[in-house]
């Protein structure tokens, strides 16, 4: 009996010894299946491939995911005991091979950086003429790039791809993180006034304001926010959609008696094989040929040429083959951005003004439970703006913080940007607390079709009483030359309805309904 027991014990130990490595190998194999990571600050895991599906759980930046399927811009993933769908533009591949020996130089203004190599995919940001990024990989007519930490795809038709040289100012490839440093980059404000905030959040404390045309040193970037040095000792965050980036070039001018380095206006070449000539004419002798990405200080201008510093002498380069460091928008170029035909299901090429009602000392209506209309209109408008931008629209918000904006100013913003649509977001109130429901207002026949499409989109997404589309003599409709709609998303004066319409779930569904209505309208009216 003792011998048999010893034999059984030995056999058990041997079996256990063989099993443990296999168990560990299996666990390791499971651990190694993760192929994605979360790049957004938060990411909702949903029951289906779309923003309208219920949220299963919330993921955090850096979480590892295993992809198991895909549908459009949505990826089916596993994480722990959960299985669901996530937005692809808020994830990145863990095992992605990155090459760092080539740069991509934009030849045009407003070159879209997209989540996928397809003109129907959401837009992450834009490059200006002469902006340089690091090439990650190429896929047919598309190039995947890293631009100041923003990773996405650009069309190869509008860029020059070069080997890296010491003369380029392209930033090295970095891991996508919450905050990306941006050394040597400036940010120029494109709107009249823009709030500077303590943190990269619309609810964060306002430190001050900056004005149109002002340029600031970029300290860091975090998703759609930029940290700028807006005074000698102060730094703050601004929304990146309201400005443009450029690279500051530091060099020594050989045309002055001072030997100290100073920041000069310079040109960046945007085409390979660009001729530098002895005079400001295309018939002058070529002294040197240079490639895209090379920069030279400007020492003068003559006709349609810049005179640039070239070693210990000067040369001339045509204005239409370069971009300047201080004014990209003013640079002449013969290669205009090709207008992308708008595909059904996208908003490419459209400008939409989103108007969060009230703000500042204008609280709007106040609900029976104390809700200020101005607060939830901004939250709803921000969600809508995000969806419209993801579909390719150029979105302009009449306010992006708790500030007062006059009604006529809101209308003028639509006129200034020649908007394709003006959407004003409001919540309703009346003396009769039993009245409920949502209403979409228009004034003239030019606005009616858009109002009806948006109203139908809302009706498909929210569970409130449908009060229909109606004519309303509101100033933002009456004075607006653009297609304009004013939406009342339920009654704050109705206590029961206030409970519903002040939830995050309602705002998500309402913004999705408005987005769907806008999309349907432009799909039907190409």
UniProtKB/TrEMBL annotation:
<protein>
    <submittedName>
        <fullName>N-acetylmuramoyl-L-alanine amidase</fullName>
    </submittedName>
</protein>
<feature type="domain" description="SH3b">
    <location>
        <begin position="184"/>
        <end position="247"/>
    </location>
</feature>
<dbReference type="InterPro" id="IPR003646">
    <property type="entry name" value="SH3-like_bac-type"/>
</dbReference>
<keyword id="KW-0961">Cell wall biogenesis/degradation</keyword>
<dbReference type="InterPro" id="IPR017293">
    <property type="entry name" value="N-acetylmuramoyl-L-ala_amidase"/>
</dbReference>
<dbReference type="Pfam" id="PF01520">
    <property type="entry name" value="Amidase_3"/>
</dbReference>
<dbReference type="InterPro" id="IPR002508">
    <property type="entry name" value="MurNAc-LAA_cat"/>
</dbReference>
<dbReference type="GO" id="GO:0009253">
    <property type="term" value="P:peptidoglycan catabolic process"/>
</dbReference>
<feature type="domain" description="SH3b">
    <location>
        <begin position="264"/>
        <end position="325"/>
    </location>
</feature>
<dbReference type="Pfam" id="PF08239">
    <property type="entry name" value="SH3_3"/>
</dbReference>
<dbReference type="InterPro" id="IPR050695">
    <property type="entry name" value="N-acetylmuramoyl_amidase_3"/>
</dbReference>
<feature type="domain" description="SH3b">
    <location>
        <begin position="101"/>
        <end position="163"/>
    </location>
</feature>
<dbReference type="GO" id="GO:0030288">
    <property type="term" value="C:outer membrane-bounded periplasmic space"/>
</dbReference>
<dbReference type="GO" id="GO:0071555">
    <property type="term" value="P:cell wall organization"/>
</dbReference>
<dbReference type="GO" id="GO:0008745">
    <property type="term" value="F:N-acetylmuramoyl-L-alanine amidase activity"/>
</dbReference>
<feature type="domain" description="SH3b">
    <location>
        <begin position="33"/>
        <end position="94"/>
    </location>
</feature>
<keyword id="KW-0378">Hydrolase</keyword>
């Amino acid at each position: 009996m003792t011998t048999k027991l010893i034999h059984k014990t030995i056999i058990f130990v041997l079996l256990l010894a063989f099993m443990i490595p296999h168990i560990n190998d299996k666990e390791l194999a499971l651990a190694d299946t993760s192929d994605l990571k979360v790049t957004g600050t938060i990411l909702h895991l949903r029951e289906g491939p779309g923003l309208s599906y219920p949220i299963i759980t919330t993921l955090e930046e850096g979480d590892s995911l295993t992809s198991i399927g895909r549908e459009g811009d949505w990826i089916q993933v596993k994480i722990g005991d959960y299985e669901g769908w996530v937005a692809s533009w808020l994830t990145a591949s863990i095992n992605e091979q990155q090459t760092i020996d080539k740069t991509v130089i934009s030849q045009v203004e407003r070159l879209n950086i997209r989540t996928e190599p397809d003109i129907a995919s959401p837009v992450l940001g834009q490059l200006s003429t002469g902006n340089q990024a690091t090439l990650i990989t190429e896929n047919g007519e598309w190039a995947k790039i890293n631009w100041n930490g923003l990773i996405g795809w650009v069309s190869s038709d509008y860029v020059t791809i070069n080997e890296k040289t010491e003369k380029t100012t392209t930033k090295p490839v970095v891991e996508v993180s919450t905050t990306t440093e941006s050394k040597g980059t400036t940010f120029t404000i494109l709107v009249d006034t823009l709030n500077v905030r303590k943190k990269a959040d619309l609810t964060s404390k306002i430190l001050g304001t900056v004005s149109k045309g002002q340029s600031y040193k970029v300290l860091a970037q975090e998703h759609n926010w930029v940290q700028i040095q807006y005074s000698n000792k102060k730094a703050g965050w601004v929304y990146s959609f309201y400005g443009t980036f450029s690279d500051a070039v530091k060099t020594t001018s050989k045309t002055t008696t001072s030997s100290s380095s100073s920041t000069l206006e310079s040109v960046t070449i945007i085409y390979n094989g660009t001729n530098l000539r002895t005079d400001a004419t295309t018939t002058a002798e070529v002294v040197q040929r240079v490639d895209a990405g090379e920069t030279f200080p400007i020492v003068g201008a003559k006709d349609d040429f810049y005179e640039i510093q070239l070693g210990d002498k000067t040369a001339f380069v045509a204005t239409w083959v370069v971009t300047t460091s201080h004014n990209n928008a003013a640079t002449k170029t013969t290669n205009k951005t090709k207008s992308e035909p708008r595909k059904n299901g996208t908003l490419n090429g459209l400008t939409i003004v989103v108007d969060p009602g009230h703000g500042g000392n204008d609280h709007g209506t106040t609900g029976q439970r104390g809700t200020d209309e101005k607060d939830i209109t901004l939250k709803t408008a921000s969600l809508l703006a995000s969806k419209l931008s993801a579909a390719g629209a150029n979105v302009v918000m009449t306010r992006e913080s708790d500030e007062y904006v006059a009604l006529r100013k809101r209308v003028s913003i639509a006129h200034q940007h020649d908007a394709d649509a003006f959407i004003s977001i409001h919540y309703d109130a009346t003396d009769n607390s039993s009245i409920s429901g949502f209403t979409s207002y228009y004034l003239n026949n030019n606005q009616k079709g858009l109002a009806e499409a948006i109203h139908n989109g809302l009706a498909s997404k929210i569970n409130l009483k449908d009060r229909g589309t109606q004519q309303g003599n509101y100033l933002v409709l009456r004075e607006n030359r653009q297609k304009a709609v004013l939406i009342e998303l339920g009654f704050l004066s109705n206590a029961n309805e206030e409970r519903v319409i002040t939830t995050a779930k309602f705002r998500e569904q309402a913004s999705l309904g408005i987005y769907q209505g806008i999309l349907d309208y432009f799909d039907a009216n190409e």
